[in-house]
Amino acid sequence: MWLRILFIGLCLPVAPWVQAWGRLGHEAIGTLTSGLLHEKARLQVKKLLGTEELAEASVWLDELRAAGTGTGPLAKDADAAAFNKKFPDNHLWHFVNLPLETPAYSDSSRFADANDIVHQINASIAVLEGKSRRFTPAQALRVLIHLVEDLHQPLHVGTGYFDFRNPHTPKLIAVPGERTASHGDLGGNKVLPGHSKFDTLHAYWDTVLVEKIAGTVNADKLAAHLHTSIASATWRSTGDYHAWAEAWATDSVHEAAAAYRGIVFTNAKVNGESERKTLEAIEAELPKDYEAEQKLRAQAQLAKAAFHLAELLNAIDWKVP
């Protein structure tokens, strides 16, 4: 087991946030969103993306991250290299590490950050409304699409923090204090449920659950299946759309708390000494009904991502040349 943990530890600086929902989930959300757009939003998207479909645009930010390591379809793309040089911390945009019992996302929280997913969604909206030149409008749209989708993956918002004074029986901490703020699992990236040789809880949510929802690896088929899950009356966003990302982050951290429910944690591997200890990896045993319960949650979150993304694109006051 600790060989697995060593492997995960070596990979963590590169891998944790590269593929939220995986390509299948992102493309399915993009496909479903396309069918929910109003005509004005559809024309604006077409203006910026040309023949590029939303499904294709939805994975651009992940492909940029891969390009930074010399892999993926953008590895030799000059524009991708320029973007990564200008924004070397763009891998941090995909998430925010809120404690599982956070009542609501707040700008004033010490867990919020200018590089977090909520801030970057709002920065992209500002570009599309002509209030910022941080990105080109096409880049802003691609960033916005991807991050709204990521925001609905619960483990891109909620993180387990632990008291591991006894590393054999670590305990989840509801609200970390200053001493335990470094004791997090990075959205399940350090949790090893043991489904296969190197799986993490985060990877399980990104790919395994997504493939099991409709029993397919075809994005169009998954999108069609997700369409039946849309609950318009329940999911409709209210108020100023500039604050919707905060509201969606709040919803996602609550879903993350449910995603951790019933998991038994054991054998924490830690680094450092005394209060400076950090979590390297932690073993976990999932409840027997975990897949059945969480598959439904993942299905709802994927459909909700498409519904909310369409809502936002329909609401934006587009001011692009």
Concise overview:
The chain has 321 residues and is mainly alpha-helical.
Structure description:
- This protein has one domain: P1 Nuclease (Orthogonal Bundle), CATH 1.10.575.10.
- It is built from 13 helices and seven strands.
- It has helices spanning 2-11, 22-34, 39-49, 54-57, 60-67, 78-86, 117-128, 137-151, 201-213, 219-227, 232-235, 244-260, 290-315; strands spanning 98-99, 158-159, 162-163, 171-172, 191-192, 264-271, 278-285.
- Strands 5-7-6 form a three-stranded mixed β-sheet, with helices on one face. The chain has a two-stranded parallel sheet with strand order 1-2. The chain has a two-stranded antiparallel ribbon with strand order 3-4.
- A hairpin with a 6-residue loop joins strand 6 and strand 7.
- Helix 2 crosses helix 10.
Task: Give helix and strand order, one letter per element, not per position.
Answer: HHHHHHEHHEEEEHHHHEEH
CATH domain class name: Mainly Alpha
Shape: globular
Low-confidence stretches: 1-18
Domains counted in the coordinates: how many? 1
Number of strands: 7
CATH architecture: Orthogonal Bundle
Tell me the strand order in the biggest sheet. 5-7-6
Radius of gyration: 19 Å
CATH topology name, in short, is P1 Nuclease
Mean pLDDT, to the nearest integer, reads 91
- Cα separation of the termini: 55 Å
